[in-house]
Design brief:
- It comes from Thamnidium elegans.
- Its cofactor is Mo-molybdopterin.
- Keywords: Metal-binding, Molybdenum, Oxidoreductase.
- GO terms for molecular function: heme binding; molybdenum ion binding; molybdopterin cofactor binding; sulfite oxidase activity.
- One of its GO terms (cellular component) is mitochondrion.
- This protein has a five-stranded mixed sheet. Strands 6, 7, 10, 11 and 12 form a five-stranded antiparallel sheet that branches. The chain has a four-stranded antiparallel sheet with strand order 14-15-19-18.
- It folds into two domains: 207 residues, Oxidoreductase, molybdopterin-binding domain (Sulfite Oxidase, Chain A, domain 2), CATH 3.90.420; 87 residues, Immunoglobulin-like, CATH 2.60.40.
- It has seven helices and 20 strands.
- The longest helix is centred in the first third of the chain and has 7 residues.
- Strand 4 and strand 5 form a beta hairpin.
- The radius of gyration is 21 Å and the shape is globular.
- The chain has 385 residues and is mainly beta.
Length: 385
């Protein structure tokens, strides 16, 4: 593995993010800051990087498009994208699959950046629809064997594994009229910054953030998933008997890659979900979300470890009107009685009836933790984990 040079990363002064790793730079906001805004300002938006940040000149950057159904590989510039394709915007939660890994790490050792509950944010991304770009090179829903094809994305970003970052999604998602997959060049109506993928990134609503490839270099239509390390050997829920890399090697090719994220909620204020004294009317705030375009139907909040529940008030503008899919999150508030040194917990139910689970499903990569709370392994029965 060659040494990576981080000397050209942006110079970062004092900021409100909690740094989880310096190189590559990974940081998340304090969760009380996270729920102050429905649209997450960049200053409170988590940063997930796998290597040094590319320093790309927009006017010189080209994206190669190739593969099945494309007669001749072609290159497209940012100028082409901005001038020749209709601009579209989508509000969506970008959530790392490792969000809340710290809870699983308290159960048993996990591999990865030890994220707290702030590795997500709700933003408006703007750019062109990927399906529009693919249509101009002949790739439409009429393509043969659509259900078996994938669209792979490769990044300029060089990673710790000495490879470029890459990932893929089903082609059917990319071509879905309601899939809202974008080639985005703006975030919250401003030009993308280097931390968030300048000059252009893929945005895949309802999927884990790892599929929304930054610093996009190429798009390939193929009949297999991306061969990238991050598609084949990462972001998978491995069986609980997998405890290290040696045992993981027996399962990487057997376990499916994660696409949509699961139903999720978390108590953000009070930050530790706990009070030293009993309070009759404690105001509680948090977030909730679900993947696949599913809205949040209900959030229940408990101040007595799940014995009794109060239904929270939901703030979910993304679900208003005639939307057939909801990519944005839900912020919620509740006023509940709390007990001394008893953690406040929440559970969400989405529009498909999926219910957030009480206990975590531990896995070696520490992904997709959507349990009610951070778990102390000394105080719960672990047999069902």
């Amino acid at each position: 593995m060659s040494a990576l040079d981080y000397s050209n990363d942006p110079k970062r002064g004092p900021h409100p993010l909690i740094v989880r790793k310096d190189a590559p730079y990974n940081a998340e906001p304090d969760i009380t800051d996270l729920v102050k805004n429905y649209i997450t300002p960049e200053e409170y938006f988590f940063c997930r990087n796998h290597g040094p940040l590319p320093d790309i000149t927009e006017s010189k950057h080209l994206i190669e498009i190739q593969g099945i159904g494309i007669e001749n590989p072609t290159h497209i510039s940012l100028k082409d994208i901005k001038e020749n394709y209709e601009k579209s915007s989508v509000m969506m939660v970008m959530q790392c699959a490792g969000n809340r890994r710290d809870g699983l790490h308290k159960v048993k050792h996990t591999k990865g950046v030890i994220w707290g509950p702030g590795a997500l944010g709700n933003a408006v991304y703007s750019g062109c629809r990927l399906r529009d770009v693919l249509a101009t090179v002949g790739v439409t829903t009429k393509i043969k064997n659509l259900s078996k094809l994938h669209v792979a994305f490769e990044s300029v970003e060089q990673c710790e594994e000495d490879k470029c970052y890459g990932s893929s999604i089903p082609l059917s998602k990319a071509l879905d009229e309601f899939g809202d997959v974008l080639l985005a060049y703006e975030m919250n109506y401003s030009t993308l910054t280097r931390d968030h993928g300048f000059p252009i990134r893929v945005v895949v609503p309802g999927y884990i953030g790892g599929r929304s490839v930054k610093y996009l270099k190429s798009i390939t239509i193929q009949d297999y998933e991306s061969m990238s390390y991050y598609q084949r050997r990462d972001y998978k829920i491995l069986p609980e008997n997998v405890l290290d890399e040696d045992s993981a090697n027996n399962y990487w090719c057997k376990v499916p890659s994660i696409g949509e994220y699961n139903v999720q909620s978390y108590v953000c204020n009070p930050a530790d979900g706990m009070h030293e004294a009993a309070i009759a009317n404690q105001k509680v705030q948090g977030y909730a979300l679900s993947g696949g375009g599913r809205s949040i139907q209900r959030v229940d909040v408990s101040g007595d470890d799940g014995k009794t529940w109060t239904t929270a008030q939901l703030y979910q503008p993304a679900a208003e009107g005639d939307n057939c899919r909801v990519w944005g999150w839900c912020l919620w508030t509740a006023t509940i009685p709390t007990k001394r040194n008893v953690r406040i917990v929440s559970r969400a139910v989405d529009s498909s009836g999926n219910v957030q689970q009480e206990y975590p499903v531990w896995n070696y990569r520490g992904v997709m933790n959507n349990s009610w709370r951070t778990v102390d392994p000394h105080t719960i029965e672990m047999s069902n984990i």
